[in-house]
Amino acid sequence: MRPRWRKVLSDLIDNKARTILVVFSIAVGVLAIGVIAGAYVIISEDMGISYAANNPSNIEIRMDDFDQDLLNTVRNFEGIKEVEARRVFNIRLRLPGETQWTTVDVVAMEDFEENEINLLQPVSGATVPEKNQILLERDVLEELKVSPGESLEIQLDDKTIKEIMVAGIVQDPSTGAIDFLAAPLAYITTDTLKFFAEPDLFNRVYATVEVGQDDDPHIRSVTADLTEKIEKNDYMVGRIFRSKTHEHPLEPTINAVLGILMALGVLIVFLSSSLIANTLSALLNQHLRHIGVMKLIGGRDQIIFRMYLVLLLVFGFLALLIAIPAGGQGAYALAQYIADEMGFSLLGYRIVPLSFVLQMAVGILVPLVSGFIPVINGSKVTVQKALDGDQAQSDSGEDQTGKAGGSRFEHMQVNSARILADRGIRIPRQRLISLRNTFRQRGRLMLTLFTLTMGGAIFISVFNVRVTLHDYVDNIGKYFLADVTLDFERPYRLEEIKQYVFQDPRAIHVEGWSYATAEILFSDGSTAENISILAPPAESHLVSPMMVAGRWIQPGDEKKLDISEGIYDYYPDLNIGDTIPLNINGKEERWEVVGVFKFIGLEGMIGYAPYEYISREQNLANRSFTYRIEIQQHDRASQQAIAKDLDAYFRDQGFHVQEVTPGLSTLDSASESLDILITFLLIMALLTATVGSMGLAGTMSMNVLERTREIGIMRAIGATDLEIIRMVIVEGLLIGIISFVLAIILAVPFTYLLSTIVSNAVFATPIAVVFTPMGYFIWLGLVIVLSSLASVLPARNAARLTIREVLAYE
Question: Which member of 138, 324, 374, 506 lies 3.0 to 4.6 Å from 280 by CB, making a disulfide possible if both were Cys?
Fold first, then answer.
């Protein structure tokens, strides 16, 4: 082996700590890019394919009970390709001997083997239940630990408890994909409806369109025409959902989130590149005399350039050996986690070519680009400068004449110390040395501060975004201020329900709410969008909207409504007081918009109108299917306790109870989904913080190494090991504190940017930003800990050197 390559090898092996630092700094960036890019590709490819493989319905209509005649009418409707009718009802399940009930939606299907829409995927056991058997969707297992062949207890409306055998476990990637906050599902044949005391009728239509299965305007048009046809047959239509065949309903949201993570991954690569540039610059400063000797014995600029270029490539290849296998596994693990949460299947583990290419490019190009300028400068240095060490002096702010460019700061430091001393305030000399050393290598300091500040700013921003998102969810919860929601399968009189509810002294207020669906029309009469109209009493205090413009509903309002701000997508010039055409109850009417409020855009169009008007129009005056109850104590335990008691009480009294829901549980699933997103963001924030701390550790190691003789002189005149260690740690802490101050400033625009991106992806609307001190305090603690840890090892190395070793250092 030629001497030049032996030197490259010794540079790698002799200073293992530096090699590990550089390799891991590159590997962190390459790993982040590999994981996010791989997961993005896997999910983008598999999510749509998995969803389409189950032939999902383009149209789902929830409506009144209907029979085979209406089903035949729908099957013969123009533009419809396939139709399935099912009955969906709510029951409670539990393990035999247990007291805790689990609520599920039971889907009754005519023929599992002939079913063509929303296909089920087997997990374990049978895929077709026999009469008086049940299939469970995989999500039910999160609440009930049951296996095929075992039995469950079910509770009917008349309080009768029966046992039913679990035939198998399945996965349904389609039915619950649109309404992912709904209860978990179970499946039976229509022959089993009698076992559940349910009528042999349908209440849901699932359909696919003949053409344009990925054309949302076409699907919307067919849906509107089909809904109108159903309503002309004197059936009341409830909620309506539509979706594309080859696009999972949550795919845009997930891709947006992965896009955010990809941006953070690119930032991590950028930060690691600054660490590499820092390390290479210091390495070449250390090797100036080596370079001078090599040039003195005939080494040319090109040879020296190639030597250090090869060193950079070796750093990159070592990082790739770590990052590529870990990135592939991490990408699939992240994709599998998201798939499990969203209820779809992956097509199997595989290496993603795009991810592999990106990792190779980043792992090779980033070290080369980051170290190119330091290598060029180092290879072109003259023999005289290299042997005299002038390059190091130049880098630290001194010119060739020996005049210190940084002396102004040092003079200011000395003068400040004298002024304080004259006033009786004496700063220990060791602290002054730490302060001077911190600003000695200003270029290196700037790169270190950049990496640590960016990591801190992102970390703080993630905590701010977390609080911002949860604050918005809390505000959305103000639309559902009832402590308990009581849903019945048939309408009951308001006074009757109040009489029974007030038998419980914990209940203090009861409201009946109504509900209607309609289509928003364009001016030419075509359908723009479906809208769900909620109808609380006009003076209800159980809803507190986030108004954007106008007023809230008032007593006496007729054909007037408040509408969510998504209306601006269809009527961008809409003003308060304008009227919009609605197709409601089979009639085209013009309704006045009296207010616009903010809501979750992904939930579709929502409107509010007074209960007094809507119930009268539906011939349900003073009656309702849904009642919202306020109790004395609003905590979760109190809500759950009274919900359980009211459920049992009304069933005992013979009421047809569909579901009793505690108020705080309404948005629990949304909060859990947000926590998943925040976890991803925190992981990326911690990665940036790790790169920043690695940069600080590298900087401290370089600073200590360059000041080896200085430390030896201090040891020679009496400095103890503890004083040397303390001096180095104080220097690291000072850098950490400066980065913390800068991170506080930079976190403000980062918070606004990240909040805007995430809120538009998750809620399809911008939301108000909330700042929290939590992230600042946690990062302050972390930066102190990281700065101390990053300084401990260099400090210990400095303290271990003997006076002879440091004074003889070259």
Answer: 374
Contact 792, 629 (CB under 8 A): no
Angle between helices 773-800 and 721-762 (to 10 degrees): 150
SS3 annotation, 698-711: HHHHHHHHHCHHHH
Local structure of residue 188 (DSSP, 8 states): E
* Backbone Cα Rg of the chain: 34
Average pLDDT over every residue of 366-392: 69
Closest CA to 618 of 643, 648, 587, 657: 587
Q: How far apart are CA 687 and CA 330, in angstroms?
A: 14
Report d(CA 695, CA 692) in Å as an integer: 5
Give the list of residues 6+ apart from residue 612 with CB closer than 8 angstroms, or none: 537, 538, 555
> Which of 147-156, 342-351, 443-452 is modeled with the greatest confidence?
147-156
How big is the CA angle at 196 (ends 191 and 202), to the nearest 5 degrees?
60
Q: What is the pTM of this model?
A: 0.71
Contact 460, 776 (CB under 8 A): yes
CA distance 796 to 519: 73
Between 94 and 24, name the one with better pLDDT: 94
CB atoms within 10 A of CB 398: 16
Q: Give the bridge partners for 590, in sequence order.
A: 581
Cα dihedral 777, 780, 781, 783 in deg (nearest 10) = 150
Q: Taking the CA of residue 605 as centre, how many other CA atoms within 13 Å lie in the half-sphere pointing to its CB?
A: 26
- Residues present in the chain in total: 810
Separation of first and last alpha carbons in the chain = 26
Q: For residue 696, give Cα distances in angstroms to 19, 167, 564, 746, 789.
A: 15, 60, 49, 19, 10
Listed in sequence order, the residues at least 6 apart from 575 whose beta carbon sits closer than 8 Å to its beta carbon are none
- In this structure, what DSSP letter does residue 69 have? H
Amino acid (1-letter code) at residue 231: E
Measured at the CA of 242, the angle between CA 239 and CA 247, to 5 degrees, comes to 145
Is residue 63 within 8 Å of 359, Cβ to Cβ? no
The helix/strand/coil state of 743 is helix
- How deeply is 757 buried, as exposed, middle or buried, from its count of CB atoms within 10 A (0-12, 13-18, 19+)? middle
Tell me the per-residue pLDDT of 52-88, one tens digit each, with 9 for 90 and over.
888 999 999 988 889 999 999 999 999 999 999 999 9
C-alpha–C-alpha distance, residues 670 and 473, integer Å: 8
Cα(376)–Cα(254) distance, integer angstroms: 44
